[in-house]
Amino acid sequence: MEREERLPEVSRRVREVPPYLFAEIDRARDEAIARGIDVISLGIGDPDQPTPAFVIEAMAEEIAKAENHTYSPYWGTDRFRQAVAGYMKGRFGVELDPGKEVIALIGAKEGLGHLPLALLDPGDLALIPDPAYPVYENASRYAGAATISVPLLEENGFLPDLSALPESVLRTAKVIFLNYPNNPTGALAPLSFLEELVELAHRFGFYIVSDNPYAEIYFDEEHPPHSILEVEGAREVAIELHSFSKTFNMTGWRIGWACGAERLVAALGSIKSNMDSGPFKAIQHAVVRALSHPQCGDFIRSQRELMRKRLSLLKEGLSRLGLRWCEPGGAFYLWVHLPEGYQSSIKFCSEVLNRAGLVFGPGRGYGVYGEGYFRICLTTPEEKIAQAMERLAGFLAS
Ligand code: MLT
Question: Does ligand 1 have an atom closer than 6 angstroms to the CB of 29?
Answer without folding.
Answer: no
